[in-house]
Predict the structure.
Amino acid sequence: MSRSLLISGGAGFIGGNFVHYWCARYPADVVIVLDALTYAGNLATLRTLIDGGRVHFAHGDINDLPLVEALLREHHVDTVVHCAAETHVDRSITDPSAFVRTNVLGTQALLEACRRVWFEHGAWRAGARFHHVSTDEVYGSLDVGDPPFSETTRVAPNSPYAASKASADHFVRAYAHTYGMTASISHASNNYGPYHFPEKLIPLAIVNALQGKRIPVYGDGQQIRDWMYVEDHCAAIDLILHGPHESITYNVGGRAEHRNLSIVHHLCALLDERFAHDAALATRFTKCPAARGIDCASLIAFVDDRPGHDRRYAVDPSRIAARLGFEPRETLASGLARTVDWFLANDAWWQR
Ligand code: NAD
């Protein structure tokens, strides 16, 4: 049976990848993207799908209740995949209020629109579902040797970003419990891959190296993150949406814990290797040290650590593995190689 999906934040990194993933696999489904196009949104990510009539794009804010209600009704939406958010921890430290507005109030507005439309005839519309794309950062920080976060780990957000996402999760849970909505949540670990805005570690390291700019690494670079290729995350959401119709939480991770500094060295080595084997790259990216045979790692610069920087995140994905058969397909090595190759091939996207 075909579906009608509304993907909030679909011009962003994960939302954009999810839109491509879904359109490729489910050609009969209707796909609507609602995005405010903040600094993190890029319509170029969806250009071919919008121009080809495959995706309907609505430029707007998730806080705009009448707009969201109208979209839900007009397109008979039965599935909301909620990706829209303010997502950069550093920005949440300088301006937490934007995170409350979008992540907390915006999530509640989206839930409220779904409640109004999907209970319109007195009972929950059969098959309808709200899915919140959340983060492992709601659980706080781990010490080396601690077991990874499970779905029953106490929520203990440390940054304003994590606090706003935890708050959004609470509203999702409360709407499911109070009104009987079907609303699921996935807590994902650090994603990376195509269409990633170059303010996060991996795209920033690649783009800065290609432009011959320093690659900033916070503190000692020994922070540990659990890395997941974004397509694996999309596949996990797909399994959830096609899984049992229930309000449930899943942790989703790549089973790939690595230190930030080693990720940056890995990326630099990949770039060095690509330039060594493809002379044309030196003519396209003349400022990259690899164009002159110099290691990209020479650009690494340690900078003051972020206040309250969490030391380690890691999620235990055994619930989604056992119930839905999820396993990440990409290893860190294969995922980083695909990512580097995508940024090399798509400089028009990131040089906008
Ligand atoms: P992103 O910053 O790349 O994209 C966010 C998108 O939301 C942008 O297109 C932006 O324009 C849009 N947006 C922001 N405010 C909006 C508003 N008020 N109304 C409508 N659209 C708005 O984010 P991302 O990295 O793709 O993250 C997507 C979701 O996944 C977020 O909820 C984030 O918390 C979660 N998440 C991200 C990661 C990660 O590693 N990137 C990991 C776990 C969870």
The radius of gyration is 20 Å.
